[in-house]
Amino acid sequence: MLFSKGCEYGLRAMIYVATHGEDPDEFVPIRRISKELDISFHFLTKIFQQLNEERIIESYRGPRGGIRLARPASKIRLMEIVVALEGPGLFSECVMGLPGCGDLAPCPLHDGWSEQRDRLAGLLKSMTLAEASRQIAAEGLRIGP
Predict the structure, then answer these.
(1) Predicted structure pTM score
(2) Residue 93 half-sphere exposure, CB side, CA atoms within 13 Å?
(3) pLDDT at position 113
């Protein structure tokens, strides 16, 4: 896939929280997310640290601890999560990693990648966690093994 494992796991985990966080005031235990999605607990905590720093989630330690969304799922776009975990370069840098790649000095993949990148950015900007969560419920889609 195009995204790093951390970003893939982060997207899956955030959709899980939006889907399974029945009460927005309650914290969803990270161990539960880790077990349900078959993601390493320690790797998941590092992902959540990044999302917490970006104020996309809030975390709480202790026996009733875990994470919750920092604002309603309808206000969190998938693009925010991707940029928080991958950085903004995914949508501006050369797919081959060449410095200076652009319309004036393109790489062999420049034109095709630019078109696909813009489509992907549009999808991620338009879809919220709430919409992804609704699709899971309505269409029986999956985010775990």
Answers:
(1) 0.90
(2) 10
(3) 87
